[in-house]
Amino acid sequence: MSTSCPLPRAENERVLLGHGAGGRLTAELLASTVLPATGGPRGPLEDAALVPGCPDLVLSTDGFVVSPLFFPGGDIGSLAVHGTVNDLAMRGAEPVALSVALLLEEGLELAELEAVLASLGKAAQEVGVPVITGDTKVVGRGAADKVFITTTGVGRRLPGLSVSAAAARPGDAVLLSGPLGLHGTTVLSTREGLGFEADIASDTRPLHRLVAALAGLGDAVHVLRDPTRGGLAAALNEIAQDSRVRVEFDEGALPVPEPVAAACDILGLDVLHVANEGCMVVFVAADAADAALAALRSLPEGGGAVRLGEVTAADGHPGRVVMRTAVGARRVVDMPLGEQLPRIC
Amino acid sequence: MSTSCPLPRAENERVLLGHGAGGRLTAELLASTVLPATGGPRGPLEDAALVPGCPDLVLSTDGFVVSPLFFPGGDIGSLAVHGTVNDLAMRGAEPVALSVALLLEEGLELAELEAVLASLGKAAQEVGVPVITGDTKVVGRGAADKVFITTTGVGRRLPGLSVSAAAARPGDAVLLSGPLGLHGTTVLSTREGLGFEADIASDTRPLHRLVAALAGLGDAVHVLRDPTRGGLAAALNEIAQDSRVRVEFDEGALPVPEPVAAACDILGLDVLHVANEGCMVVFVAADAADAALAALRSLPEGGGAVRLGEVTAADGHPGRVVMRTAVGARRVVDMPLGEQLPRIC
Fold it and tell me: Pfam families under this entry (chains A, B) (predicted)?
């Protein structure tokens, strides 16, 4: 993700839930505190980083704190594999190896831990990525909430693909590989017992095969990003900012399942802000858009791929994301602030 | 670490603090639950794993949950760098890149976070390893304790070194690079306000330069291990088990600083079980022992290096560790069970 203008310091004397939500507050914390201290990159923050001295290898790490641990369609174990595999994939890389660091709360039922780990192991096996190392820490009751998992992945970049959040170009078509809003609404509904979870399930799944299917298009593929925390709004804003372009898309093209729309209506959520774990946006040269859509749709996980819109020149407003509404109006889609949905991944 | 005989299941229906302490309970949890689910290695568990398809690269991950965050000699930030750099070094690798995953509790003072990250950044800079990627999650008040950090390191194996916990051979000399017991006693004393912390400081520091200094000895260096959780007792037991040998050492050779000995006496701790973060054991062919000691002592962090003992044939008891006491008796040094010192790293 990219860094945005810091908020005034006085608002930020303590860590807020929104600092972890993937929106403006997260960007502010990274820009003001994390990156200056760790000497992090000044350029765009990608989902995975190149390993110095190893030109084809990338590294990505992700902490998982989802609550509840189990939800329709997945659990923290499968999510921890998919999330990191997908971050590697968004740099055009296939997964080579995973590490798994467990942080456990004293008193956790071992049966619950076993179920999480069985799911994690199954997800890794389905992806074909070995878990090669790990770590287990335990803290006292009340010092953590059951299980937190940090997975780190090493990936190898697919030959021919060279994608970056800074590589969108005017004229690019903007594609989305699958339905929107399923993960966030499912987890929230399960956590709060709202009842929608009977009709929906998280979309958590690995995206590396979709990326491999796009590899044949080579340089025509410019940007890949999975709209997780902060949703589609955050993903598009980050890309528009990092590439200094404007992104326009049609509200009517958004693939929002009916139960997701109903849940968002009742909960007052903007589906553009809801986290996803099984779809990605693809920015591709216009003349390769049909081929890219066909490649995505050739796999089950891309069966619902659609064209959302296109990139235009910045026209004095680089970084702007605009939605064309059903009635023909244009609405600016801002970066979410960040406090909407804690512990969604 | 190696896996030991599982304890009966009935004792283990919930996660205990000792499951994270690096002793027998940790080994049991790994053997019974973690490794079967994740398809982990059946051989010895090394501090860092080889990356498939990348013969010179290793990967290691470690979660840090130390309490308090700051203690004499270090803090969770520097510890998170040193711990992972040292795990890479124990596979004979120099650090190439780090990832940092932060898990923050809502309400944490930003000034405290900034101090932790400044220390982390400084430690990484001193080692010369870039932090190339990261992640930040926030959970609600009471769902974590201030800051947990998971660091993952990619390392490149130094040419000539080929070390493994399974490579100890009868006749090897057993060396220790520095004083024993400083980290664990310092953290415990600080946490509990016992007063020893005025006289001692954690030994937290990177060991990669010591390992580089040993690289010239090549194949004569058989095993490297830093005695962190579980202390020297766990490290030697793991090596003895994985190599199917017997290890003997002299109690009188243990470099235990006076304040550490006093703290252990009063607290009822066995210094052999106390965690260290700045020393390592080296198993080296007998005829290279003097050269190895000289190499260690050539650097400030190895200035206190000593010879502890030697490896002997198993004689029907593979995996046994024996201490020759000051009065000439022999005491079997067991793997610690694990509940002694929670949240020490």
Answer: AIRS (PF00586), AIRS_C (PF02769)
